[in-house]
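Per reviewer request, we include the raw input and output of the structure prediction for the construct analysed in the revised manuscript.
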Amino acid sequence: MAVLLRISAFIDTINDRIGKVVLWLILLSVLVSSGNAVIRKVFGVSSNAWLEAQSYMFSMVFLLMGGYALLYDRHVRVDLLYTRYSPRTRAILNLVGSLFFLLPTAFCIVYFSWPQLIESYHIREMSPDAGGLPRWPIKLMIPVGFALLMLQALSEAIKNAAFLAGKYQFKQDEEEEAVVA
């Protein structure tokens, strides 16, 4: 179990670091959006590439932050009943949800998005808009983002299984935040 917990900690570190870098894309997206609006109003010039770059950045944030959100328990969940359960019941629900729902779904998305990415790259797919950007870089974010989510789901499954086995203790602040949320 100790080896699995070290693997879990490594996965947590990967998603934490990627998440902290990707968070800056939000600011960059706002700056691009604002700059594009000002240039369009002041100079009457617009660029499809800048508009698409803005969309790409938003998509990257959405796709690459899934693992980070799961790591910090900031994902969407119906907390009406969940917060009333004991930590043991929550660990069982999280373990079952990770193993039987999240991991298979994320795997399918990675598996089925990969051929789309390869085809887009090989045909050098471009945006249909004049001055648009290539499509393969954003299509790459789909399997990468869901692979990060899949890794984090594995990490959470390991931690919840270890908790149920008495080999892992969740941080107190995580438990309190889950109850408050």
